Amino acid sequence: MSAIKLIVGLGNPGAEYAATRHNAGFWFVDELAREGGATLRHDSKFHGLAGKARLHGEDIWLLQPQTFMNRSGLSVVALAQFYKILPDQILVVHDEMDIPAGQVKLKQGGGNGGHNGLKDIQSHLSTPAFWRLRLGVGHPGDRGEVVSYVLKPPRREEQELIDAAMLRAQNLLPRMLKGEMNIAMQQLHTDESKQRPHKPAP
């Protein structure tokens, strides 16, 4: 299985969006940049902020598209083609409303779940076969409130849960960077099952 060579965090550019749920992917990549001593600089040919980090002995590209969410694919395909990175060597980190805040899941391929960033990346790469790290942010419960929900900051207790989930995912990066994606996925989902409150037996 291919090792991850590019980690893309999804979000919207601009200070007014920085703390919103939709920018969870940006938060994750910011943490990796700090850990890997990388400076993300604007690169016009990649339509985003890009930088190379040294993480767990591996060189890895980090990218935050600056195209707004629904055109994220433009940025991803530009960097991937330039450095000859294949779809299964790409990890896209994004907010996921179908998962409660504080949970995180790893998967390859599949649908986009109505997420405009994923939809555009699939379109530009001509395949859904890239990896996704899905950071749970919860759901407002009313489909009519989805847009306003993801464009607002999480409550403080939600933010703490999301931060803890991101840390659990970061701990599995050594596996991902070696191409041990199935092991990382199994370990992450085992860890996640321990995080969920268990119902008491009747």
TrEMBL record:
Site description Discriminates between blocked and unblocked aminoacyl-tRNA, residues in chain: N12
An annotated Gene Ontology molecular function: peptidyl-tRNA hydrolase activity
Residues where tRNA binds: Y17, F68, N70, N116
Principal location listed in the UniProt entry: cytoplasm
Site (described: Stabilizes the basic form of H active site to accept a proton): D95
Active site: H22 (proton acceptor)
Keywords recorded for this protein, A-Z: Cytoplasm, Hydrolase, RNA-binding, tRNA-binding
Catalyzed reactions: an N-acyl-L-alpha-aminoacyl-tRNA + H2O = an N-acyl-L-amino acid + a tRNA + H(+)
Keyword match ATP-binding: no
Origin superkingdom: Bacteria
Localization in the cell: Cytoplasm
GO biological process: protein quality control for misfolded or incompletely synthesized proteins; rescue of stalled ribosome
Gene Ontology CC entries for this record: cytoplasm
InterPro entries attached to this UniProt entry: Pept_tRNA_hydro, Pept_tRNA_hydro_CS, Pept_tRNA_hydro_sf
Role noted for this protein: Hydrolyzes ribosome-free peptidyl-tRNAs (with 1 or more amino acids incorporated), which drop off the ribosome during protein synthesis, or as a result of ribosome stalling. Catalyzes the release of premature peptidyl moieties from peptidyl-tRNA molecules trapped in stalled 50S ribosomal subunits, and thus maintains levels of free tRNAs and 50S ribosomes.
Similarity remark: Belongs to the PTH family.
Subunit structure and binding partners: Monomer.
The protein's name: Peptidyl-tRNA hydrolase
Organism of provenance: Silvimonas terrae
